[in-house]
Design brief:
By secondary structure, the chain is of the alpha+beta class. It has one domain: Sandwich (Jelly Rolls). The protein has three helices and eight strands, in the order ββαββααββββ. The strands form two sheets. The protein has a five-stranded antiparallel β-sheet with strand order 1-8-3-5-6, covered by helices on one side. The chain has a three-stranded antiparallel β-sheet with strand order 2-7-4. The longest helix has 14 residues. The mean pLDDT is 97.
Length: 138
């Protein structure tokens, strides 16, 4: 069995962004040479997420509104965590959107359903953060 590991780095221009990272993940699969196996992709920061969904701008706006209703950024004083930081909402948003995805690799490709794409979700951006890509298989 082969194993492949790579870190992808991101620095968003805004506090919150959704970035389609499917092309970078597909490049990792090609680099790995693995044709049959599993891919794990996870955010390495507790205020960022990796998730699977549709790459549709209206849906991304819906995510933003939904998350802001559940865990509004302001007022910062509403959160016990916000003593030295102002990112409690980002921790909660990450918990809702999830830490990682696991996807089957079949014949050297992501074994996706229709419209599925992998996204990096940033909830406390404007600084460098990383995502781990781990692939195992043959």
């Amino acid at each position: 069995m082969k194993s492949y590991r790579k870190e992808l780095w991101f620095e968003t221009g805004k506090r919150r962004e959704f970035i389609n990272i499917t092309p970078q993940i597909e490049q990792c699969i090609r680099e790995s040479g693995i044709k049959e196996g599993l891919l794990l992709c996870n955010a390495m920061h507790i205020t960022a997420s990796v998730f699977i969904n549709d790459d549709e701008s209206g849906l991304h706006q819906d995510f933003e509104r939904f998350l802001e209703k559940l865990a509004p950024e302001k007022p910062y004083s509403q959160y016990a965590h916000n003593g030295f930081e102002d990112n409690a909402d980002a921790h909660l948003k990450r918990t809702i959107m999830g830490r990682e995805v696991v996807v089957a690799i079949t014949d050297g490709k992501l074994d996706f359903g229709p419209w599925e794409q992998i996204f990096y979700g940033e909830f406390d951006g404007k600084r460098r953060k990383r995502v781990l890509v781990k692939i195992i298989g043959e």
